């Protein structure tokens, strides 16, 4: 069964409004979750809505933040006031754009936020306005440091994006071997996972998603270093929670998350010039697409290209959702008087 994106967005927004979120927050969360599902990134899609609502009900998410912003030249610090991460991040995107238009670059640090979904969505928004973008967020510790066996850092994703004549280049990656959301999905589907993804409580690799205690850093010491980079930019630099100072979204119900984000927008017009930049990006894109594919591959893709194709197809044909996710959403809708539809 498939559902239209417009129905899912409207349904999620209506439910969040009934749960107490203000209109900007409800719109932002619905947008972020549905856009993730459209791109085939179910680990950051509507799968997350039930826990978002639970944290709102528990008083751990601010339903109507004012989001004060303190500007200092091309730099700004945004207080998320424990609002929903997508609402906070979209405000940071607006601030980064404004700063970059005035100064050539805009760097925005965010503190006291919550889980914001796909980092690439916010980088893509900046690139759609002509900027080269860099977005990071820290997260609750789920990853062992290289050589360790206890959780010390989050999956700490980073994303960058740049416009090109052919489309938007968007790279979005966790600094762990996998996002924890993908482990959740494997548990729900009863599937095995690559043993490189995670370790059990003794620090041994496992292919059983139910035995995963912690994730492994991407590429060993390289991913560990990248995770530290993200932690410094998103947490240490901004005044947000750092490592175990971040509340666990699913496991801790006595404190807010205090997640930190970092967004950077660069105006190509202040470097080689906008037209020259697009021309050079177009040539780079074309050269990569012209690379002969290796055995087992039909073509070479740029980061974000597959997700863009999935999104286009899902908009035309509708989106499929896991049965368990649909069951949870239906139950949530019944509780708040926002009926789910199987014919939408």
Automatic annotation (TrEMBL):
One of its GO terms (molecular function) is oxidoreductase activity. Keywords: Oxidoreductase, Plasmid. The keyword Oxidoreductase applies. The keyword Oxidoreductase applies. SUPFAM superfamilies: L-sulfolactate dehydrogenase-like. It comes from the Bacteria. Pfam families: Ldh_2. Belongs to the LDH2/MDH2 oxidoreductase family. This is Uncharacterized oxidoreductase YjmC. The gene is yjmC.
